């Protein structure tokens, strides 16, 4: 018998007119299973069926750019942490002074002068032991070196900058060491008034040197403000300078054979100190602008000044072991000196020398005002005139405004 899939055909005849033919065909294959219902079919079924769920198990909600988001309420602890992580007003003020203000250069120099004034006040109030000047300078330079090193390490910056600024940093360190050494020598050998007056010429020297080496413009307003401030310093010590001049004449007339002490060599050293100090300011500005990091100039100065002051203290002075209060005072003054140097470098980095150097005279005016308030005596005309000249000069500089260079 043949397979059921084969085709069989046979015919039968019942007569001459009727023929019956039988044909058997192959069995067709079973139909494929129907596909699963699509989402459109499900949606149609859901529409037709009111009891069906809105979303099937296999269907997930789609999120697009038009999907509305509803933020959840944060717990109280998270809100507290968020408020604590926000910047404090003190930090915002420091950032504003450092970089976010048009007056950042002038403000940094002003705060540096104020810190130097506070250092003088603390030295006068809490000083209980006479410490030699070179030993004091060595302590401050050591603290400046340590703090600047830690700061640079924490910010992960190179200690000596790139190769193109290392020569500038080296020259800045040399100029700073020579200026500090000669300045200490003048304070040891000259009367206090003469030493202060000579040191007050440093901003003027810095502005003149910047005119030639940094190609900065020295405007008439800058010259007038610098001259006004310097004459204010001369008013402070006019009586002392006149008294010292009269004493020298009297000593020369009383003893013709005696050699009058005019301190010519010490005065020349003081002038040299102011010139080198002005050069150091220009190198600070050049190094800070080239490296874009004013702290590098402070660190380079500490690297060279620390051993230099130690050697000078060992050679020229007798070591004095400070007491506990003296050590504490020296630590505080060293930390303040570090911040004053950083602000000084930042101010020189941001602003032109002829304008920012005049702000340094704030320290002299504040010192005289503090001495007058401390003694509670009737202020002399010279002191009031000097303070007024410096205040007017600084206010004019601030009123004219910053003059940042467009690089």
UniProtKB/TrEMBL annotation:
SUPFAM superfamilies: Formin homology 2 domain (FH2 domain) (SSF101447), Multidrug resistance efflux transporter EmrE (SSF103481). Gene3D superfamilies: 1.10.3730.20. The chain crosses the membrane at residues 103-125, 131-152, 164-185, 191-213, 220-237, 264-284, 296-316, 322-344. Signal peptide: none annotated. Residues 1-55 are annotated as: Disordered. Keywords: Membrane, Transmembrane, Transmembrane helix. Residues 1-14 have a biased composition (Polar residues). GO terms for cellular component: membrane. Residues 27-38 have a biased composition (Pro residues). It comes from the Eukaryota. Pfam families: EamA (PF00892). It is a multi-pass membrane protein. Residues 104-237 form the EamA domain. It is found in: Membrane. Belongs to the drug/metabolite transporter (DMT) superfamily. Plant drug/metabolite exporter (P-DME) (TC 2.A.7.4) family. This is Uncharacterized protein LOC101505035 isoform X1. The gene is LOC101505035.
